[in-house]
Specification:
Blueprint lengths: L2 H17 L11 E6 L4 E5 L13 E5 H6 L8 H10 L1 E2 L11 H7 L5 E7 L2 H4 L6 H5 L1 E4 L16
Antiparallel strand pairs: 1-2, 1-5, 2-3, 3-4, 5-6
The structure holds zinc ion.
C-alpha cells in the first residue's frame, strides 16, 4: 500500500471508529475527520458523508492555503466561505463540498506532529450547559497515535 493509500485507510478506520454507534460519540453521524496528505493539502470529510459508513469517496482533498486565508479575512460572509471551500477542492469530480468545519481542521492540522484530526458531537457533551464547543469538539489526534473512541469519549489532550 502506498503512503497516501495507507493514510486514507487509517483516516477511514478512525472515522468509522468515531462514528461507531456503540461508542455513542456522534449524534446522527455528526462529526468530522481529516488527515494531512502533505504540506499543501489534506483530506476532509465531505458534507453529507456519514462517519460510520464512510468510504474513500466520502472525503475531498483540499488545499490548506485558501482555507487558512479565510482567517485573515475581516468578516467573511457565509457565501465567501462556501466559495473558498469549494475552490480549495482538488480533483473534485463529484463536486463534493467540505463542511465549514474544514476551517477548524485546517487550523488544527497546522499543529506540529498532528496528521489526523477527528471531532464528534457526543450526546453527553452536547447536553452540558455552558460548554466551549471549540474546546470540547476539537480532538487533535497526535501522529497516528489516536486512541480508540470505543473505549469511551475523551476530552481533548486527555
Ligand atoms: Zn462538528
Amino acid at each position: 500500500m502506498s503512503e497516501p493509500q495507507q493514510l486514507h485507510a487509517e483516516l477511514i478506520e478512525m472515522s468509522r471508529a468515531l462514528g461507531d454507534p456503540a461508542a455513542d460519540c456522534v449524534i446522527l453521524g455528526e462529526g468530522n475527520t481529516s488527515a494531512r496528505i502533505d504540506e499543501e493539502t489534506f483530506w476532509v470529510k465531505a458534507s453529507g458523508a456519514q462517519l460510520p459508513t464512510i468510504t474513500e469517496e466520502g472525503f475531498v482533498r483540499v488545499r490548506f492555503a485558501p482555507i487558512l486565508g479565510l482567517f485573515d479575512a475581516e468578516h467573511p460572509s457565509d457565501e465567501m466561505i462556501k466559495q473558498v471551500l469549494l475552490e480549495a477542492c482538488m480533483d473534485n469530480k463529484a463536486e463534493q463540498r467540505p463542511s465549514i468545519e474544514a476551517l477548524m481542521h485546517a487550523l488544527l492540522l497546522q499543529e506540529p506532529g498532528v496528521n489526523f484530526v477527528g471531532h464528534t458531537h457526543p450526546v453527553a457533551i452536547n447536553a452540558m450547559a455552558g460548554y466551549s464547543p471549540m474546546k470540547l469538539s476539537a480532538a487533535a489526534l497526535p501522529q497516528r497515535g489516536y486512541r480508540s473512541p470505543t473505549r469511551g469519549c475523551r476530552w481533548p489532550g486527555e
